């Protein structure tokens, strides 16, 4: 079953989340407006010829598990590695007194506030429609969104915890962690297995997730690439 995690974006885009995807038998992407992520049936030998017709010139995408030659028509923007982590802890306690609100993916103001916070804090690939991919919980200061955590990729039973971020002016209160606990609790009660990604360079977040109850499943290559002439 853990083989799903070895190529999680492909299994999400070709399985439970195929209705959010565009592409063909060997290559898919989240549709425009969602998180700009590519998935390939063979992650180590991605079929860029198949996915190119579904990508516009200038679009940037994240691509995991691949470190080969950059194909013609594409440009490398950045590359690094990230940890893929899986939950191994106890179920978090319920916190009914913590006033989190679910973001409404069909509410334009919610979607725009989530996008603005993601652009400010850069928790990973994010789009205006990303909050349609799962449950996104948020903490507000009056009407201002200041912290959120949600769900992105899903290949049953594995569901990703993603979009975890806090506005710089509101950090240190533990709100994002408490939002994560609510997400993780819901997933575990639904017999899902939480997992997440964190960049290797983000030592503070990696250490926090280890303390919370995640363990490292693997370290994998991740690239940002752009379709060009």
UniProtKB/TrEMBL annotation:
Coiled-coil annotated residue ranges, if any: none
Residue ranges constituting the N-acetyltransferase domain according to the UniProt record: 101-229
Protein name as it appears in the record: N-acetyltransferase domain-containing protein
